[in-house]
Design a protein that fits this description.
single chain; Rossmann fold; globular
Length: 215
């Protein structure tokens, strides 16, 4: 599959509020793209090999906390089968009791250690401009919520960086878990991010690349 092929996505939310209208407007703006939506806990019914097979890529913009052992088993099976995934923003903070989730998303934000700050004006640095996820994107300014004091796992391929006291230095990456290609983008708290052209391009290229890389 090429990176401009038509892709069909499942966008999963739940466990954290967000500005719906500008969020969905971002997805509506993408060409060669269609999507369905699901909300936790109902979204668990899609998180198995059979039910997810109609989707090229799963996008998580949730912050759901609870997951049963059976749900973990089905989720891990999906990753073993190579389902491409993009995690956005507070999806990093999902399933805090499920240790393996840190390996899946590729980083860890710990309660009592990690920090958040709203409406920070800062520069997103493209760490690897030759990567398909960041291709054509220059360093850009954004007003968004930063997460500080969280760690990307050492094995991830770094895509985005920041130099700001309220932000962790590594804020976007890709890696593989099981057979799944995964992208995490820390940005994306509200309409200020969803409307930012740099952010839109990252989300769009991120989804397309995890699909292309998995084929
Ligand atoms: Zn947020």
């Amino acid at each position: 599959m090429t990176t401009d092929a038509k892709i069909h996505t499942l966008v999963i939310t739940g466990g954290h509020g967000f500005e719906g209208e500008p969020f969905w407007e971002m997805f509506n703006s993408f060409a060669n793209f269609s999507y369905d939506t699901a909300v936790f806990p109902d979204a668990f019914k899609y998180l198995n090999v059979e039910s997810a097979k109609n989707y090229d890529v799963l996008v998580f913009y949730d912050m759901w906390q609870e997951i049963t052992v059976d749900q973990q088993t089905a989720y891990l099976e999906l990753l073993r089968h190579g389902k491409p995934i993009v995690y956005l923003h507070h999806a990093l903070i999902s399933f805090p009791e499920w240790e393996e989730f840190n390996q899946i998303v590729g980083g860890v934000w710990k309660r009592g250690k990690g920090t958040v700050k709203h409406n920070v004006q800062y520069t997103i640095q493209i760490a690897d401009p030759s990567h398909p996820v960041t291709k054509g994107i220059q360093d850009f300014e954004i007003e968004d919520e930063t997460y500080g004091n969280f760690d990307a796992n050492p094995n991830v391929h770094v895509l985005l960086k920041a130099e700001h006291p309220e932000s962790a230095p590594v804020i976007g990456w890709t890696h593989r878990y099981g057979d799944s290609q995964i992208v995490y983008i820390q940005l994306g708290h509200d309409g200020l991010a969803y409307g930012n052209p740099g952010y839109r391009q990252l989300v769009n290229q991120g989804m397309r690349w995890v699909v292309a890389a998995g084929n």
